[in-house]
Sequence to fold (150 residues):
Amino acid sequence: MLAVCVRYTRHRMEAEDVLQDAFIKIFKNLEKFEGKGSFEGWMRRIVVNTALKNYNKSSFKKEKIGLEDYQEGSMEPDVIASLYKEELLKVIEELPNGYRVVFNLYVIEGFSHREIAQELEIQESTSRSQLVKARKMLQSKITQIMRIVA
Fold:
């Protein structure tokens, strides 16, 4: 569950604080688990929600990075497959905070843009836009990594 928290915070210590808060919520609400679905899924949802509440409190959540001059190119499908999981997670962690959170919620957690907009108190179009920009940044960074490796 710490890995989930790390994806939504800027530093490991902050992630540990979020995880601790999440476990407190889990233990306080243990009797509310109805046995429908997996216990791990129930816990994960609490952890994600706690991380999102922490993110919403953060003053840096409104940061923006302009990509107006970015030229989109195609990327070989094998490029991402050849990266190790740790390298890919490191590249994702380097995204600006807003992009990273939207990317994680949409791609990894499976949230819809409507759900993301509600959780982060943003417009659905903002969620879509940040996802597109996150993907472009990831594509650029991964292409740079592959050029260095090759």
